[in-house]
Amino acid sequence: QVQLVESGGGLVQPGGSLRLSCVASGRIFRLQTMGWYRQAPGKQRELVGTITSIGSTNYTDSVKGRFTISRDNAKNTMYLEMNNLNADDTAVYSCCAQVTWPPRTDTYCGQGTQVTVSS
Length: 119
Fold this sequence. Notes:
- By secondary structure, the chain is mainly β.
- It is built from no helices and eleven strands.
- It has strands at 2-7, 10-12, 18-26, 30-39, 46-51, 57-59, 67-72, 77-82, 91-101, 104-109, 113-117.
- Strands 2, 4, 5, 6, 9, 10 and 11 form a seven-stranded mixed beta sheet that branches. Strands 1-3-8-7 form a four-stranded antiparallel beta sheet, with no helix packed on it.
């Protein structure tokens, strides 16, 4: 009923930048809080950061000052701008969203996009 699709991943050199996108489609009355997660090989899934419907953001400490989350509510899209990337940022990045279709609010997540930081 709701699909989230990430894009923008790829191979980037240390110190480089990438911009990820997450587009939500389907039965959406309102997108509430959205978030980016990442999972590196052999590690647990980690919350990178979140953004509320009015644009308030929070980030995990390891990405503060380097990553920026934004959203375009008119396009049902969330972005993750990643700068000064390093090898520890290598992971599959996925997005999740709290989606309201009255009277319910459910959480949906995408399949993810691979980000590899390597020289």
